[in-house]
Amino acid sequence: MTEQTIALVTGANKGIGYEIAAGLGALGWQVGVGARDGQRREAAVAKLRAGGADAFGVPLDVTDDASVAAAARLIEERAGRLDVLVNNAGITGGMPQTPTTVDPETVRAAVEVNVIGVIRVTNAMLPLLRRSASPRIVNMSSTVGSLTRQTTPGAETGPISAAYTPSKTFLNAVTVQYAKELRDTNILINAACPGFTATDLNGFRGVRTPEQGAAIAIRLATLPDDGPTGGFFDDAGVIPW
Ligand SMILES: NC(=O)c1ccc[n+]([C@@H]2O[C@H](COP(=O)([O-])OP(=O)(O)OC[C@H]3O[C@@H](n4cnc5c(N)ncnc54)[C@H](OP(=O)(O)O)[C@@H]3O)[C@@H](O)[C@H]2O)c1
């Protein structure tokens, strides 16, 4: 087994995921660039490697059982274990998605990637994570999924949404359930919000850079053994559920 810390970032070919991979690579880690499209994946790996990161491509569509199983096999063959999993891949499902008019397929698509995709990837990687001395799982959520914020007058929680926003609330709930089940293990699992970041996801309307958006995931990926688990954090600290 390699001595080098090994991480997998899903949806790492662009946006925040790419910068998470760059940030973890800068720590001297091996970073698996999970991406579903071969060309976009290899372009990202080449750019990361040119920047000095020990990056490698991991073909990965989080909605596809066979793809996820193959990704786990690839990492097992390469390193024999996984230290850090960042479940970053996400979609909005397409806008508008107001509750009274939404196409149920829009909801299904968002939940399939943002929630079920996370469960699928996490469970496939757990046997490898259990072999690590300090396993960490980071789920990229969003403050828009905070029910407390949504019900606080004046709080900014994005457009009215029956798909993306509730999918992040669902992801938060799932993160808590994993933390409860894994309480007696050394696995720390937390949800993160990158802040409103300029990426394809929002037509580059975000106000933070992808590098800034990546910072919280990098922090949660590098938590000490006595760090928190089952929490929800952004750069400013704990986010209310
Ligand atoms: N940007 C923000 O303001 C913001 C705010 C809060 C939370 N977030 C969350 O941060 C995460 C990253 O978002 P981003 O802003 O960086 O968006 P982005 O630039 O659109 O990147 C999304 C990534 O997810 C990948 N992806 C989508 N569906 C996938 C699938 N089925 N299998 C594998 N990969 C898939 C995309 O790959 P392709 O290139 O192949 O499509 C891409 O690499 C998401 O979970 C998002 O919800 C973002």
UniProtKB/TrEMBL annotation:
Belongs to the short-chain dehydrogenases/reductases (SDR) family. Keywords: NADP, Oxidoreductase. CDD domains: carb_red_PTCR-like_SDR_c. This is Short-chain dehydrogenase. Pfam families: adh_short. The lineage of its organism: Bacteria, Bacillati, Actinomycetota, Actinomycetes, Streptosporangiales. InterPro entries: CBR1-like, NAD(P)-bd_dom_sf, SDR_fam. GO terms for cellular component: membrane. It comes from the Bacteria. GO terms for molecular function: oxidoreductase activity, acting on the CH-OH group of donors, NAD or NADP as acceptor.
